[in-house]
Design a protein that fits this description.
- This protein has about 350 residues and is of the alpha+beta class.
- It has a domain at about 280-350: Phage tail protein beta-alpha-beta fold (3-Layer(bab) Sandwich).
- Helices cover about 30% and strands about 30% of the residues.
- It is built from nine helices and 19 strands.
- Strands 1, 2, 3, 4, 5, 6, 7, 8, 9, 10, 11, 12, 13 and 14 form a 14-stranded mixed sheet that branches. A three-stranded mixed sheet has the order 16-19-18. The protein has a two-stranded antiparallel sheet with strand order 15-17.
- Strand 13 and strand 14 form a beta hairpin.
- Helix 1 (about 10-30) crosses helix 3 (about 50-65).
- The termini are far apart.
- About 35% of the residues are buried.
Length: about 350
């Protein structure tokens, strides 16, 4: 499907108005002056229209980085499941139509913004992404499954047919299938922020390499890393299973952070920091330098090569990974490494 940008006055007619409002919200967020009541107003404003989310994301990216190239990297990629030459041709035609539409755009910012929310979705695939015979779902558009994928430095915002919104960071991949009795989402790598539409008859089931998450309707973030899986619950209640960690099913509420690796740890965090993730902030009590470099590369597309002897060095703090040059310059003297520029990004060595 395509994320809806209709149901309101012409996008071009309201563009200046929406951009001004988005810029005001971003300024409040970044100056640290936003109160909890304002955060609730911001969530309502973002939920009112996909155009609001689009311009907020673009304004936030421009606020964090003056380089417009960073904004252009928000263009998402949709990867269809194979279904034969006929469907491939249909998808190719859709891609040509999107390309022509973007070329006709009135302004470069509008072109970049439009590309950030348009997904060309092919028809159902013959291969079930979860390895089972596809069920006949209530919504035929997702009964047979689809794949969502982002390259490093990209960001994807998608609204599923049930109203669920998923925002995927760079370097992420997922497979989605809706059946009559459940909605399935397999996050194979990367990060995704979910706002799940309430449906008691069809729970939303998320699978990662280490954990399973069951929700009916809530907002939460899942980060799939090489060593662990993290779930941050911003609103509502979720159930988390961690069979590999030999843990029973846990029901966790708003403000709870669950990390599943060799063991399972449960902690607390401030759920009012939901927008931090969109702004490129991470708050880590302990993360390896190698894992932090991977996060930077996924979110910005900047290549970070870490010498093997430094890859397991543990660092801690609050980091803005969307500004790698400033971040590495601050961490280097503290943790005894030097970050040198390369053609593709940075190399970290003693």
């Amino acid at each position: 499907m395509v994320i809806r940008i209709g149901a309101f006055r012409s996008y071009e007619e309201r563009l200046d108005e929406i951009r001004a409002q988005a810029a005001w919200w971003v300024a409040r967020e970044h100056t640290g002056r936003m109160r909890e009541a304002e955060r609730m107003d911001l969530r309502d404003w973002l939920a009112r229209s996909p155009a609001h989310e689009l311009e907020y994301m673009l304004a936030d990216s421009l606020y964090a980085d003056d380089d417009l190239v960073a904004a252009m990297r928000l263009v998402p990629r949709y990867v269809p499941e194979p279904r034969g030459a006929r469907w491939k041709e249909a998808l190719a035609q859709g891609g040509r139509w999107l390309h022509e539409a973007l070329i006709r755009g009135a302004a470069p910012k509008l072109v970049a913004a439009s590309a950030a929310i348009l997904l060309v979705i092919g028809l159902a695939s013959l291969i079930d992404p979860f390895g089972r015979t596809p069920s006949t779902g209530e919504d035929a558009r997702l009964a047979d499954g689809m794949t969502l994928k982002t390259q490093n430095g990209e960001r994807l915002l998608v609204q599923l047919p049930d109203g669920t919104r998923v925002e995927m960071a760079g370097g992420s991949e997922a497979k989605v299938r809706f059946a009559r009795d459940a909605r399935h989402f397999a996050l194979t790598k990367g990060e995704a922020l979910f706002e799940v539409a309430h449906d008691t008859a069809r729970p939303f089931l998320i699978a990662t390499d280490r954990a399973g998450v069951r929700v009916v309707g809530t907002r939460f973030l899942i980060r799939e890393m090489p060593a662990d899986t993290r779930v941050d619950v911003f609103d509502g209640i979720v159930e988390i299973r961690a069979p590999a960690a030999d843990a029973s099913t846990m029901r966790v509420r708003r403000g709870t952070r669950v990390t599943v690796g060799r063991d399972v740890t449960i902690g607390r965090f401030d759920p009012g920091t939901e927008q931090d993730w969109r702004g490129g902030w991470v708050d880590e009590a302990s993360v390896s330098l190698g894992a932090l470099a991977q996060l930077i590369e996924q979110r910005t597309g900047t290549r970070i090569v870490v010498d093997p002897e430094l890859a397991q060095v543990q660092v801690s703090g609050r980091f803005r990974i969307t500004q790698p040059e400033q971040l590495l310059a601050k961490l280097g003297p503290v943790y005894g490494f030097h970050a040198s520029r390369t053609a593709e990004g940075y190399r970290i060595a003693k």
